[in-house]
From TrEMBL:
This is Galactokinase. InterPro entries: GHMP_kinase_C_sf, GHMP_kinase_N_dom, Mev_gal_kin, Ribosomal_Su5_D2-typ_SF, Ribsml_uS5_D2-typ_fold_subgr. One of its GO terms (molecular function) is mevalonate kinase activity. PANTHER family: MEVALONATE KINASE.
Amino acid sequence: MRTESISRVARPVRACLSGEDLDWLGGRSVCVALDLCTTVELAESGGNTEWSAEIWTFLKERIPALPPEPPPVRVTSRAPLASGLSSSTALILGLFAVFVPAASGISRDQVIQWAYEFEFAICNGGGMDHLAIALGGVTLFHGRPAGLPEVGGRIGLPAEWSVVVIDSGTPKSTPDHIRSVRAQCAAGDPVLAEYLARSDDASGVVWKGIQEEDLEMVSTGMAAAHEAMRDCQQMSTPLLEQLRVRAYQTAGMTLKVSGAGGGGALVGVCATADVPALTSALRAAYQQSYPGVQVLVAAPAPSLS
């Protein structure tokens, strides 16, 4: 085992509160890191996980002194997979963290850049997921067409707020979604332009609501963001809409799809004091009609220096 390496890391996932795809289309996005962590640790024996060999090959091209084969690792995750919470990016960042030798002198910023470049080659997306997970807390991004987005602001989610995650149990495909949106972009699709404008406005409302600790304003912005995703980009589904309606009717909860859509999870922000009653009501409402749905509660992952 390479004792000079970090042997165990935990990386949060992220929920996008507004502005999917705007990290590379341009405009503002708001993400919060959540403590549904993916943990990667070096193991004495055993196999490797998804991306181990590919990341090791990527790193060997940049750090020639690495051994021929990657060390075995063990991975656990608290987040539902293929849910739009960027659990795959959390895994990739975790693998980079344990594979890059601490003695190499390679900075954290360089590791984040490498992780972005590695994943960009797979799905051709933006970089807000990597930065949101690496930085923790809540991050405002200003998108740009190439490279990592600009960080426009960082703040902690108010301590008395929590994030509720409704996992629909239906997976989504990020690469297919990004391929479709890039085709729209290349064609100058006016519907995409409308989506960008509406989502950018929604992100501004969400960010201001968090700054002012105004939960109603945050919910209003998230609702506008979801409606832009649904109406312009067909990123919602009948099941997700049913879950949204049931949540609002049952508990007054505003939910928004997170990630590429077409499945995955819905997220909402609420007062922590309301969590027990709210989640109990939601689970009871979903139990019979939607048995595959999970109701999870996540705390914001702390903002890192």
